[in-house]
# Entry
Amino acid sequence: MDVLYFAWVRERIGLPRERVESDAATPRALVEELRAREDRYAAAFADLSALRVAVDQKLTDFDAPLDGAREVAFFPPMTGG
Amino acid sequence: MDVLYFAWVRERIGLPRERVESDAATPRALVEELRAREDRYAAAFADLSALRVAVDQKLTDFDAPLDGAREVAFFPPMTGG
Amino acid sequence: MSAPLDIRVQAEAFDAGAELNAFAARTDGMGALVTFNGIVRADGGLTAMEIEHYPGMTEAALTEIAAEAAQRWSLGAVLVIHRHGALRAGETIMMVATAAPHRADAFAAADFLMDFLKSRAPFWKRELGPDGASWVAAKDSDEAALGRW
Amino acid sequence: MSAPLDIRVQAEAFDAGAELNAFAARTDGMGALVTFNGIVRADGGLTAMEIEHYPGMTEAALTEIAAEAAQRWSLGAVLVIHRHGALRAGETIMMVATAAPHRADAFAAADFLMDFLKSRAPFWKRELGPDGASWVAAKDSDEAALGRW
# Structure
């Protein structure tokens, strides 16, 4: 699947998007896999309460099913307007 | 004092403003004097609950003191905006 | 904060877009800007409108309402333009604009201005339709709206 | 009523006044028109702003929010324009406009749009000031505002 990062999550991880091969069942499980990779992921995902997640461009929660998802995005709370 | 009429009050009475010599203590008393004059006044002032009054360009009520007032205006509820 | 109040009562048509841009330019530094525009509705065969007002009292009432808004909320500026005389369907009757550092203040102040302007500023509308002219009746809901504040 | 929704996400600056006039012209017959304009504030030495967004999801989220507003209130039309990229102090970030037969609907819908746009549309602001750049933190009050609806 494609994993996207925005705002300071993008900055901490150091890239805006990457291809990830994963069988993670939920965004939370995907985060655990990413955290285990490198310090920069651990730093970006240190506090999930400070983050939001979208699956296939729909805002959802960290325990939503990832079954068949093509695109998962992690980002801080939004500040539009 | 000057007595002003607006909207359908003006139309029923047939003039926008007139000079009235009166010692009426309140707008209500002034209305009684005007009503006694002619049918057109009686028609315009038939239902005071449908009317509003301003004394010296300040919205007030029919029992407010008229002491020293230079200008009294009668009109229907306002419909601006 | 003593917000500048710009109050205009006029027969002439005005360009609402140009007024919005001018208002935004002179309230530089305010993050939130709300406008309300009242337009002559074209429904029910309405072809035109005439607005009567009470010269002198109108300006005083609008200024008082705007000053009250500026006291209740933290505003950078307030604009009120209201026309009188003859208007055609589709023409802009009036415009209110509020500028504030925070959007909640700008929204509340504009909403408040409209509620009070509607029932406390001396304007009277007469509609001209296919069956002739008739004075617009005040709505109970407009009077009731004042109770919100 | 199925109100037309005009949703635009763009890097280019836009003329808020011209948009207001164009919106008013195409919602002929609606008596009430409310706009909100968000402007880059010039306070705290802020000199510029950068807005990041999530292409694709942004448009979908804004359309969903606007459609929800059009379902809750009787509206004639909804306009949302939101910029991304680099903006200078004083520039217009975004604009919302609602047209309705009645002013209460136009006000409520614009207020609703702003609350949801603020916390549910994928935009992130970064402010550039004298001490460098920093991401704008979401306010608890913005999340809490959603509870009003």
Summary: The longest strand of chain A covers residues 71-75. The first helix of chain A runs from residue 7 to 13.
